[in-house]
Amino acid sequence: CGSEAQRDRVLSVEEWLRKWSAGATAFHKEHGHPLLQKHLDLLVNGRSGLRIFFPLCGKAVDMKWLADMGHSIVGVDVSEQALKEFFTEQSLPYCEEPVPGISGAKKLQSTSGNICLYCCSIYDLSSEIVGKFDGVWDRGALVAVNPCDRQCYVSLMSSLMEKNSSYLLITVLYDPSKHNGPPFYVPECEVKSLFG
Questions:
Q1: Integer Cα distance of 185 and 179 in angstroms
Q2: Are the C-beta atoms of residues 106 and 98 closer than 8 Å to each other?
Q3: Does the keyword Methyltransferase apply (predicted)?
């Protein structure tokens, strides 16, 4: 399917944390993602008050944009720095508490209650902890997880989705023999085989 060149590529949590602390976050969009704005209707489909999941959310400003529309946002990222910067830069007060059942994890929740961000490995989450979602905005998550973990990631995502939920996914197409990733190369055929 064309993505064999990167099959064994692995980035550690430490490497992701270093990217945040060094400011090497070119993947962060200051003004929200134009493709989410363009295809918002595919995600919300005229519905209001949805629970929307942001896997590997970083400090995506789209979380506040959707929360301001009345949706309830849940995100997860290993970088506590990114999550705290999100609340600070969006001028949102928040509180912090441990997550029962996940050692060392933290939950950062806006005081208004409609944005809840988990600081832990995404693989530590389950529907018992975070519930299920009406929508998923996967921008920079599937293409960031280590290629060997994709199946595990997709199984987790499937387990977090309500029956009639929408999954909006962005992938990046390029020649994987010329670029190491991340973002990793996930061609359409692989998306289809992963998600069925």
A1: 9
A2: yes
A3: yes
CATH number, residue 139: 3.40.50.150
In a domain, 48, yes or no: yes
Half-sphere CA count of 184, side-chain side, radius 13 A: 23
Contact of 43 with 168, CB cutoff 8 Å: yes
> Within a domain: residue 152?
yes
Separation between Cα atoms, residue 86 and residue 88, nearest integer Å: 6
Q: Which amino acid is at 89?
A: E
Torsion of CA 85, 20, 2, 35, to 10 degrees: 30
Given a cut of 70, whether residue 79 has pLDDT beyond it is yes
Report the predicted TM-score, pTM, of the whole model to 2 decimal places: 0.95
What beta strand segments (E) does 32-180 contain?
51-54, 72-77, 94-98, 106-110, 115-119, 133-139, 161-170
Residue 147 to residue 7: CA distance in whole angstroms: 6
| Full residue range of the structural domain in which residue 139 is found | 33-195
What pLDDT is attached to residue 34?
95
Indicate the number of domains in the chain: 1
User: CA 73 to CA 66: how far, in whole Å?
Assistant: 8
